[in-house]
Design a protein that fits this description.
The complex is a heterodimer of chains A (268) and B (273). Chain A has 268 residues and is an all-alpha fold. Chain A contains 13 helices and no strands. In chain B, 78% of the residues lie in helices and 0% in strands. In chain B, helix 2 packs across helix 12 and helix 4 packs parallel to helix 7. The N terminus and C terminus of chain B are likely disordered. Classes of the chains: A mainly alpha (268), B mainly alpha (273). Chain B: Belongs to the binding-protein-dependent transport system permease family. CysTW subfamily.
């Protein structure tokens, strides 16, 4: 390269990386080694490995897994049918549109829908099941989370289905594969990248939800995200909160490494 | 081919499924809109039409100031992060060594995959350490910070699409470095810049978790305000507000669609909580 093409652009960008990517993570690690009086200690980590936090971690993972699984179960067929639909770009736009509505408003809508006299209960009553407690249950938590995450699962899968060469499917059919075999042996393996990045885009945020747990699950479900919020903004025990955050960062790095490089598409 | 082979039956099941998903996705939003006109004051039992809640929204000065804050933050943060992101994309594009390039890209993506709560908490520590007062400034800075990587990701593919001979040609014809940038590179990557700006805008407008951590007392954005009102229970002025926001979102999406139609794909835009 020529001498006058030194990479000057790197200066502001590297400054951004140093200040907002590296420094915050370093600070979180630093705080995780400080106890509540500000002394160096491992007490936060010792605390983290007690049954209370372990149980919370396990239940966070369990809920995140459920949310990811249900999102996948709904989103894959939807994406598949979308690629076959006549006006697919329009359909896609219509399905993505709700994801651009403020998250808080959607959560708020479910408070009304799932409330004691809300639409869901009116429906249950009309089919003879009677009123149920829907809000503040595990079901409502998982349902609302899946609702919110479906577009993030759907987009990467849709993109990878679009990239799939249709002649491969025709070839499989010509060679006598049943539709199910074609799907299992050809379509799904070839779109696994989309599924992976979709799962990644859902699992990591699902692990650290805190707004939905408060509004919809009524503090019944305590996820790691809720615990961080609690420690930072309520009990002011930043050390403990930072320790959980360090754990989440490690989990994120592991998931990133396992699912490989993410593709263009939805954001996490 | 596949669907047609199954005949009309397969086709209609497929459509039924899509319509069901579609209905579930829109039900909560339409529910909010419907009850925003309810004279009864609750989200059940429709007692008649009223515009009372809209009147309440427009006479609530505090709420209007918060709406204004939210838009000011969104516009400033997306403009600044677009500039920074374009510079970042140019920086990454210029790096020749593959390893260094991948390292930069990974660092870039950290703020995209990091959970919002972790970003919020770590920014709170950062701002406290450097002594930035929590409020407008801290919210603006953090919105800029988390919007930069998405702009980079929107602009970078455009830079890669660009033919390097274009730049060589411009240089051979005697263009200065600045002229190459402003007359050749920037016009070429313009769709990416617009897409990045738009995404940054929606990121900022939608963000709740990060803002919630760094907002402090006395300053609030819409998401944070809706959260604290929703925790106190149902109030139909939130419904009225959400109807207005929904209409605004549709306008924004239509605008984005029109801008992006020339470059073709809407799938690249991605979704956003």
């Amino acid at each position: 390269m020529k001498t006058n093409s030194r990479n000057l652009y790197l200066i502001p960008y590297a400054a951004w990386i140093a200040l907002f990517v590296v420094a915050p993570i370093v600070l979180i690690v630093y705080y995780s080694f400080r106890d509540i009086e500000g002394n160096w200690s491992l007490s936060n980590y010792a605390h983290f490995f007690t049954p209370v936090y372990m149980r919370m971690t396990l239940s966070s993972f369990w809920y995140a897994l459920l949310i990811t699984l249900f999102s996948l179960l709904v989103a894959y067929p939807t994406a598949y049918l979308l690629t076959k639909a006549k006006h697919k770009q329009l359909w896609l736009l219509l399905i993505i549109l709700p994801s651009w509505v403020n998250l808080l408003l959607k959560a708020y809508a479910f408070i009304g829908l799932f409330g004691t006299y809300g639409f869901a209960n009116a429906f249950l009553e009309s089919v003879g099941l009677g009123r149920q407690q829907i809000l503040f249950t595990d079901f409502s938590f998982v349902f609302v989370s899946v609702y919110i995450f479906i577009p993030f699962m759907l987009l990467p899968i849709f993109n990878s289905l679009e990239e799939l060469n249709p002649t491969l499917i025709q070839a499989a059919r010509d060679l006598g594969a049943s539709p199910w075999t074609t799907f299992r042996r050809v379509v799904f393996p070839l779109t696994i990248d989309g599924v992976k990045s979709g799962c990644q885009a859902v699992f990591i945020p699902a692990l650290s939800l805190f707004m939905i747990t408060r509004l919809i699950a009524g503090n019944r479900v305590i996820t790691l995200g809720t615990a961080i919020e609690q420690h930072f903004l309520v009990t002011q025990d930043w050390g403990m909160g930072a320790t959980i955050a360090v754990f989440l960062v490690i989990v994120m790095a592991v998931i990133m490494a396992v699912t490989g490089r993410r593709r263009r598409g939805a954001r996490g | 081919m596949n669907a047609r082979a199954k005949g009309r039956g397969g086709w209609s099941w497929a459509n039924l499924y899509l319509i069901a998903v579609f209905v579930i996705l829109y039900a909560p939003i339409l529910y909010l809109v419907y009850y925003s006109f309810n004279a009864g004051g609750t989200m059940h039992g429709y007692d008649g039409f009223t515009l009372e809640w809209y009147g309440e929204v427009f006479s609530d000065t505090r709420l209007l100031i918060i709406v204004l804050n939210t838009f000011v933050i969104a516009l400033f943060s997306s403009a600044i992060s677009t500039a920074l992101g374009v510079v970042g994309a140019l920086a990454i594009h210029k790096v020749r060594r593959l390893q260094a390039k991948n390292a930069l890209l990974s660092l870039n993506n950290v703020l995209i995959v990091n959970p919002d709560v972790v970003i919020g908490a770590s920014f709170l520590i950062l701002f406290t350490m450097i002594g930035l007062k929590l409020g407008f400034g801290s919210v603006l800075v953090s919105h800029i910070a988390f919007s930069v990587p998405i702009v980079v990701l929107m602009v970078l593919p455009k830079l890669q699409e660009m033919n390097a001979t274009l730049i060589d040609a411009a240089r051979d014809l005697g263009a200065s470095g600045w002229q190459v940038l402003s007359k050749v590179v920037l016009p070429f990557i313009k769709p990416g810049i617009f897409a990045g700006f738009f995404m940054a805008l929606t990121y900022s407008l939608d963000d709740f978790a990060v803002t919630f951590f760094v907002t402090g007392n006395g300053f609030s954005t819409l998401s944070v305000e809706i959260y604290s009102r929703a925790r106190q229970g149902v109030s139909l002025s939130i419904n009225a507000l959400s109807t207005l926001l929904f209409l605004f979102t549709i306008l924004l999406v239509i605008g984005y669609y029109l801008i992006n139609r020339r470059s073709g794909k809407i799938t690249e835009a991605g979704a956003r909580p």
